[in-house]
C-alpha cells in the first residue's frame, strides 16, 4: 500500500456502529459474542453472569479492512475487545512514511491498556489488517470493571508483561541480531503450538513483515527466498507455510530460541 493511499484511508467515517446493548442482539449473536469475550485474555476468569452484564454495556463496532484510525478519542475514551480480525498497532514518521509496527492484535486481545492504566493519550495508530469487529465500552466503565473484578485486574499484569517482552525482544534483536535471524524468530514466534501452522502473519505482505522487524520489503523478500531455497518454507500468493521447523530453529537459535 502506497504512503499516499494509506493516508487517504485516515478518514473519520471508517467506524460502523452496529448495535449497542445485549438486548439488541439475537440469542444466537449473544452466545457468539459471549464466547468471544470468554476467550479474551483479560476476561477469561469472569463467570457467565458477569460476562452477560459486561456485554450489556457494550457496543459493536466494525472497522473495514485496510482502514486506519488516527482519531485518538476512540482509544482514549473507549476500551475495546477484539471479536474478529487483526489490528496493527504502529507508529509512522510522517515526513518519510516509514513505519514501525509494535504489535499485531488478534481476537484474544484488547486495547488500549496504557490509556486504561495511566489515563494518558497513547500516541500510536491502528490499522485493520482484516475486517475488524470490536466490542467497546466507555473507558471509565472499564476502569470500574477492573476495580470491582479482581480476576480482570490479575490478568492485566501477565498481559502487559507479555507485551513488554515482545518490545524487549525487538530492541535486543534490532541491535544485536542480523535480519535473517530476526525474520526466522518472527516466523517462529507466530507458529501455533498445537497445529504447528503459521498464524497472524501468514498472509502479510513483505512490507508488513519488514515493519515488524525493522527492515525493508526488498531485504525481507530476499531472505524469504533464501528460506524457500533452503527448504524451510514454501511461498504462495502472500502466504507463508512452514516446511521444516527444525531448519527454522537453526536460523533462529543464536540466543537459544525454542520450538513452539
UniProtKB/TrEMBL annotation:
PANTHER family, per database record: CRP FAMILY TRANSCRIPTIONAL REGULATORY PROTEIN, REGULATORY PROTEIN YEIL
Domain Cyclic nucleotide-binding: 42-143
Assigned keywords, A-Z: DNA-binding, Transcription, Transcription regulation
Domain of life according to the entry: Bacteria
InterPro entries cross-referenced by the UniProt entry: cNMP-bd_dom, cNMP-bd_dom_sf, Env_Response_Regulators, HTH_CRP, RmlC-like_jellyroll, WH-like_DNA-bd_sf, WH_DNA-bd_sf
GO MF term (any one): DNA-binding transcription factor activity
A cellular component term, taken from the record's GO annotations: cytosol
Name this polypeptide is given: Crp/Fnr family transcriptional regulator
Signal peptide positions on this chain: none
Domain (HTH crp-type): residue spans on this chain: 177-246
